[in-house]
Amino acid sequence: MKRGAFLAGIAAAASATRASAQVPFHGPAARQLTIGVNVPLSGPLGQYGLQVVDGVRAAIDENNLLTNLSGTVYGLRQLDDQDSSAVSAGNVSIAAADATVIGMVGNLTARVTLDTLTEYANDGFAVVVPSVTAVALTQRGYHNVYRLPTRDDVAGRLFASTVFRKQPSSFALAVTLDGAYGPDVARGFVQQARTDRRNVDLVTLPSNAFDPNGAARAIVSRSPDYLFLCGKLTQLGPLVPALASAGYNGLYGLSDGFFDQETITKYGAQLGPALVYSSLPPLDRIPSILRQLEDLRREVTGVTALIAYGYAAAQVLIAAASRTNATTRYSLLTAMQFAGSFNTLVGPFTFNADGDPLIPNLYFFKISGTKFDFVEPAVRNGYVV
After folding, report:
1. Which of 42, 208, 264, 382 has the greatest CB tally within 10 Å of its CB?
2. Phi, psi (rounded to 5 degrees) for 292
3. 328 phi and psi, to 5 degrees?
4. 11 and 88 housed in the same domain
5. Are 25 and 73 in contact (CB under 8 A)?
6. Strands 371-377 and 363-368
7. Would you say residue 382 lies in a domain?
8. Are residues 48 and 146 in the same domain?
């Protein structure tokens, strides 16, 4: 790492704010521990990192409100990684110098998270990742990283096995742009669909020379009757009206990069009753979290996916520490490796040896008028009604 970048990281970490969670009683508790959050708090991604922080803070507040005098209360240390790998690494060093910080939540983007894995491991931190779906995150041999959302290739396979196999289709295409997000979803979909003996193929378009109209004509010339669009709305969305102009009138499936109200606003007429997946369940349909959800909504103006996953990440760390009486980052890491299952705001989790959910899940929604209607989960476990 260049010294200038390292010093910038130390300066940013040192200037990060440390917020204490609410303590519902007077007098000292038996223990006071801290959860660190390493995400962008400034710059273009700051608004998203702050949502993760809001979720973690709300979970900590909820825990502290339920803690009696003999229990452990938690604080929050928020660290601005500025979406920079160098700054993120410096933040981990700062967190490690604080003996009360026993676990970390972060980062926001795949690039920075992957670049920081070595620092988390070297300092003995269990890190719960709230937003990164990139396959590589849990494929590098680290045993201190725990991912909450379903990884991309698994999501593609779950879409094929749960939704696509029910659709009448003579020929389907998974369509994606080359880049960080989309290709792994598309490959997982194609692999599972072929295993299920469906007639499918993969189309990967160049992101640096993306021509929606030319791509649409090429796709339509192959006469598919089902298209699974794997990518982000902002990047792949312009293909939808181009396909309509080229004469495509088949069905659509959409990856979670399209699970946004803007999808309906911009392209609802062309997409019709398209199905889209999300790792986030419909929270209002989960009876077991109604009280937690009400409390959370009193703290935040709207429960976004990042807020919900930040909340769940803190729940996992707190539960692991509580079960094993962990008071250091090393004992918490050991606890995470043997702590079993966790019930969280976004669903139950048990992690495999790589740190992925042992039983991953997706939730499917259909475009219906001006909204997304929940259809079904990939795995029916009684959590969502």
Report:
1. 264
2. -60, -40
3. -130, 165
4. yes
5. no
6. antiparallel
7. no
8. yes
Q: Which amino acid is at 290?
A: L
Both tokens of 235, joined, read 């990047």
Provide CB contacts within 8 A for 4, sequence distance 6+. none
Contact of 26 with 62, CB cutoff 8 Å: no
SS3 call for 17: coil
Q: Bridge partners of 351? A: 357
Helix (H, G, I), strand (E, B) or coil at 212: helix
The residues of the chain scoring below 70 in pLDDT are: 1-30, 68-70
DSSP 237-288: TTHHHHHHHHT--SEEEE-GGG-SHHHHHHHHHHH-S-EEEESS--GGG-GG
Count CB-CB contacts under 10 A for residue 298.
8
Q: Considering its fold, how many domains does the chain have in total?
A: 2
Determine the 3-state secondary structure of 55 from DSSP. Answer: helix
In this structure, the answer to whether residues 335 and 271 fall within a common structural domain is no
Residue 232 and residue 57: Cα distance in Å, rounded? 29
Q: Decide if 175 contacts 222 (C-beta within 8 A).
A: no
CA–CA distance, 136 with 179 (Å, rounded to integer): 13
Q: How far apart are CA 293 and CA 304, in angstroms?
A: 12
∠ CA 148-275-365, nearest 5°, is: 55
pLDDT digits (tens, 9 = 90+) for 86-140: 999 999 999 999 999 999 999 999 999 999 999 999 999 999 999 999 999 999 9
Question: Residue 32: beta bridge partners?
Answer: 73
CA dist list (Å): 146 to 125, 350, 372: 11, 10, 29
> What span, in angstroms and rounded, lies between the C-alpha atoms of 316 and 145?
12
Q: Indicate whether 39 and 102 sit together in one domain.
A: yes
Q: Are 156 and 189 in contact (CB under 8 A)?
A: yes
- State both tokens at 33: 């521990």
pLDDT at 30: 63
DSSP reduced 3-state for 332: helix
Indicate the burial class of 97 (C-beta count within 10 angstroms; 0-12, 13-18, 19 or more): exposed
CA 48 to chain centre: 12
Find out whether 348 and 265 touch, Cβ atoms under 8 Å.
no
Whether 157 is covered by a domain: the verdict is yes
- The confidence score (pLDDT) of residue 9 equals 37
3-class secondary structure, 229: strand
pLDDT value at position 18? 39
